[in-house]
Amino acid sequence: MEGKNLLKNNNKLIALITALTISVGMVMPSRIAKADEITNETIELVDEVSNSDESKMDSGNKVIDILSFNDFHGNVLESGKNIGAAKLTGVIKEYQTKDEASDTYGVVTVSGGDLYQGTAISNILEGKPVNEMIKEIGMVVSAIGNHEYDWGSNKIKNWADEAGFDFVAANLIDETTGTIPDYAVPYIITDVEGVNVAFIGIATPETLTSTKAENVIGLKFLDIIETLDKYSQIVRAEGADIVIALTHSPATEDSNGVITGEAAEIAANANDIDAVIAAHNHKFVDGFVTNINNSKEIPVVQAGYNGRGLSVLTFTVDDNNEIISIDANTRQFYVESTVNDFPIDKNVDEAISKFNDELAPTLATEIVDLEFDLDHDRYAGVTPLGITVAEAMRQAGGTQVAIANGGGIRAPLSKGMLTLGDMYTILPFDNNVVTMKVTGAKLKELIQHGINPDGFGWGQYSGLTVWYDSKTDEITSMRLSDGTKVEDDEYYTLTSIDFLMTGGDSYNFDGHIDPVIIGEMRDVIINEWQTKGIEKLNYNLLIDGEDTTDIVADEEVEVKPEITPEQVPSETPDSNENVESDKGTGSVEKLPQTGTPLSSAQVVFISLAIIAVGFVIFNKKEEIA
Q1: What pLDDT, on a 0 to 100 scale, did the predictor assign at position 59?
Q2: How far apart are CA 42 and CA 620, in angstroms?
Q3: Where do the DSSP E strands lie in 25-89?
Q4: What pLDDT, on a 0 to 100 scale, did the predictor assign at position 241?
Q5: Whole-angstrom distance, CA of residue 229 vs CA of residue 223
Q6: pLDDT of residue 301
Q7: Where do the H-state alpha helices sit in 309-383?
Q8: What's the CA gap between 221 and 228, in Å, rounded?
Q9: Are 496 and 436 in contact (CB under 8 A)?
Q10: Which residues, other chains included, contact 525 with Cβ-Cβ below 8 Å and sequence gap of 6+?
């Protein structure tokens, strides 16, 4: 009998331990450290790199730091995680002060491109505030980003001449002349403490589909690897000790440190380069890629976006300027200080404040009172803000459907009074709104193209409910907002933007008819919101599953219960973020648009209930025995 009681008690204990283990496992899953998490280890790493530099200089070797930032997008004002131009300059000048005090340490600052377009203060003043920062930090060279073309290529040379730096783009050709455009050079070589550092420029071929087609007419992009192999020989012959590919090519680093993307392909395949500076997809990257030709470990760095980071490539060279070692570190400022506690450069601060004071009355112009938050993350699906913007376009165009691009909407909106400055923040690009007619088959193709795309933001739309299979991303049914099913051979009225119509984000609008331009996108949206206000809409327009609409007496009745906006789960990114996402190019997970996961409290309650039931059963068995 004692043996049976012991067995019975052991069974109870085992059941209790098992249930508790399951509960804890479900509530507290193991975590993998992300690049943007605040950790003491990350902060300590910054100190270690600095101490390591000092020890290397003490050995008699030279240490050269290559500082790079990318995708600044005109964010000269401090806001949220954006530290602003004055503090970014202050950080860079700390390195320069160290350079001035040492004969064995040197530093040079460069950019990966996309410097100017993106904020009201920079857009309205056509980049002048950004150039104030560039002149103060003494930036030497920049890659050409796709958004350098947003106001036409004639601006590019003027920016460089005004601020005293060079744009480099070795793989960019003007088809009319057969040569590199006059606003760029293929490479530069700069002397840093007696060490010759070469920067070979690479512009991403995605430029042709990520800016207005009319602004890049006649441009041709040469093979990147062949171009780098050609110019690396040239710069070595001219005495370059260090050769760096300065690119606007994307890179993504996963939690295991594996780097992928166009910049990683460059590092793996170019014959004779020592490092790659990446840009374009707004990621934080600092790691190494093995070159398949020589087995060298090639560092690849990228410093996020909006001035939120600074990449540091540290080269240690001997007396003959031969490279002894290379370190790659990307500082993430909001990891180092959540309150942006960085030195402020007085000159830049005064210049930016002057620009801001001049524009303040204009930027503070009130547009409309928003009574609720509108979330937007272009990599997360069809979003509340995306749908709201598309609906304003649809109403302005008087059409059945509207399509916008998720990447053209650059930030979420928080409730409160929206100003003109807010409108420039969410819609910085000067696209035109166009109405047209397309067939149902073409409409399906356009919507399909924007579902879980590879390399750009999700398509945003209104006027349609779409059913699809999340396993394949294939559309299974589409209905207009009045319930009418979209037929392939019927024509439907559509509102979109000229950027997409001319091939932006690789959209194909071939076959459309009756196009009419109705105005500039930002102005169109402002007019609609000022006239009609902003209504809370049904955001459940993309449904994972089958279209279960029944046809009864020629009327279409939706049997699925209506999901209100409050029931649709969403993540609210930082209101100052343009593209804050752990999903890089080609690595966006398929996210279902419906359903809510169990909360931790629900899991604990279920587990405790299981334990209670188990004890009751065991007690009943004991009484029967």
Answers
A1: 60
A2: 56
A3: 62-69
A4: 98
A5: 10
A6: 98
A7: 333-336, 346-363
A8: 13
A9: yes
A10: 389, 392, 393, 396, 423, 427
Task: Measure the N-to-C terminal CA separation of the chain; round to a whole number of Å.
Answer: 10
Which residues of 222-351 form beta strands (DSSP E)? 242-247, 252-253, 259-260, 275-277, 284-290, 297-303, 309-317, 323-332
Question: Does residue 414 come out as left (phi exceeding 0), alpha (psi in the -120 to 50 range) or beta?
Answer: beta
Q: How far, in Å, CA of 389 to CA of 528, rounded?
A: 10
Token reading at 312: 């540091």
Q: Strand order in 187-192's β-sheet?
A: 187-192, 195-202, 242-247, 275-277, 297-303, 284-290
CA 494 to chain centroid, in Å, comes to 28
Neighbouring residues of 541: CB distance < 8 A, sequence distance ≥ 6? 382, 387, 461, 462, 464, 465, 466
Instruction: Quote the percentage of the chain above a pLDDT of 70.
Output: 78
Torsion over CA: 269, 270, 272, 274 (sign): negative
Residue owning tokens 């950080």: 91
Token couple for 287 = 């790691």
With residue 437 as reference, give the H or E element that holds it: strand 432-439
**What single letter denotes the amino acid at residue 155?**
K
pLDDT at residue 436, rounded to an integer: 97
Q: Reduced to 3 DSSP states, what percent helix, strand and coil does the chain have, rounded to the nearest 5?
A: 35, 25, 40
Tens of pLDDT, residue by residue over 488-536, are 999 999 999 998 998 889 999 999 999 998 989 999 999 999 999 999 9
Which residues of the chain are modeled with pLDDT < 70?
1-59, 550-625
Residues 390 and 268: their CA atoms lie apart, in Å, by 41
Averaged pLDDT score across all residues of the chain? 84
DSSP string, 101-159: T-SSEEEEEEE-S--STTSHHHHHTTTHHHHHHHHHHT--EEEPPGGGGTT-THHHHHH
Which of 30, 92, 103 shows the shortest CA–CA distance to 64? 103
Q: Count how many residues are written for the chain.
A: 625
